[in-house]
């Protein structure tokens, strides 16, 4: 934190001296001491938050050094390196387009970090990727879209609220790029839909806010105008939600538009009968009840009553 504060202050006040300072600090990124690598990476990450590195033609050098830290043995260094790369979206947004493919690859690698027991690197990768998405070329993200969507899906139910929030916000941001891959990404929306609707009952307000955002973003891709309008009107950040009434209407639209999805939606809800969160545990059977209420008779035979009664 101290190194980041120093980086922020120096970006504001020490412009002309920065090239020499950066040049002298680069060797410490290869130091045998974790503390020196951590401090320098944190300092560089904060510098990248400012356009001064672009003005002084330091951006490419620092970006290459941050990318080079992705294989560091210290998890904190890897996390801070991703933060620095994500900060380019704030400090030099016009450069993100040029280096988009490289930056996106770094974020995907961060999400796939194998030595990240508490998912801190993945968390940094997801929040940094959300920042970068506004500035990358569509062609650069298209090739990675499906991989990222599948990779972040398990985090929707993480015990860590910041992982739930970041992954859900990122998913919402990814939908902006789904047009070229509409059918493929539509499948990902359907895979996540039950989870996003149930987590509107999440105990953490920041996760509820993330779900509202993601569902509003998903709405236009769902091929159902009624559902899209419901998400846009009822899931505004400043609006309180009558959950039962909302879900009743959502299920009506779902069963009118996708009746063949009934069994799939029920099976996903059954998983949440054992949720650790009581409000989500309560929401899942209500969700199923509304689905069955609104489906027509022709599709009722999809339902496996034995499975439903046993709740497993």
TrEMBL record:
Residues 64-310 form the Maestro/Maestro-like HEAT-repeats domain. GO terms for cellular component: cytoplasm. Pfam families: HEAT_MROH2B_C. Gene3D superfamilies: Leucine-rich Repeat Variant (1.25.10.10). This is MROH1 protein. It comes from Herpetotheres cachinnans. The lineage of its organism: Eukaryota, Metazoa, Chordata, Craniata, Vertebrata.
């Amino acid at each position: 934190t101290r190194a980041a504060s120093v980086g922020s202050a120096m970006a504001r006040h020490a412009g002309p001296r920065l090239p020499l300072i950066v040049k002298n600090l680069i060797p410490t990124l290869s130091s045998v001491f974790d503390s020196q690598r951590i401090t320098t990476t944190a300092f560089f990450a904060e510098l990248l938050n400012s356009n001064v590195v672009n003005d002084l033609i330091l951006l490419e050098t620092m970006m290459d050094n941050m990318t080079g830290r992705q294989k560091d043995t210290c998890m904190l260094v890897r996390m801070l390196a991703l933060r620095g790369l994500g900060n380019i979206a704030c400090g030099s947004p016009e450069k993100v387009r040029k280096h988009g493919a490289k930056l996106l690859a770094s974020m995907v690698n961060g999400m796939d970090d194998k030595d990240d027991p508490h998912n801190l690197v993945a968390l940094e990768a997801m929040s940094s990727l959300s920042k970068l998405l506004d500035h990358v070329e569509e062609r650069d993200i298209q090739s990675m879209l499906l991989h990222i969507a599948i990779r972040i899906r398990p985090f929707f139910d993480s015990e860590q609220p910041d992982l739930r929030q970041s992954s859900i916000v990122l998913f919402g941001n990814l939908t902006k790029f789904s047009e070229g891959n509409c059918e493929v990404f539509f499948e990902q929306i359907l895979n996540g839909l039950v989870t996003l609707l149930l987590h509107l009952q999440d105990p953490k307000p920041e996760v509820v806010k993330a779900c509202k955002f993601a569902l509003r973003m998903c709405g236009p891709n769902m091929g159902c105008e009624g559902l899209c309008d419901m998400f846009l009107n009822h899931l505004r950040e400043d609006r309180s939600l009558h959950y039962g009434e909302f879900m009743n209407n959502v299920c009506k639209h779902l069963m009118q538009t996708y009746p063949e999805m009934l069994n799939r939606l029920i099976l996903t809800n059954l998983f949440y009968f054992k949720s650790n969160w009581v409000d989500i545990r309560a929401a899942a059977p209500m969700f199923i009840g509304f689905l069955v209420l609104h489906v027509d008779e022709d599709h009722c035979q999809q339902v496996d009553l034995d499975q439903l009664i046993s709740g497993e």
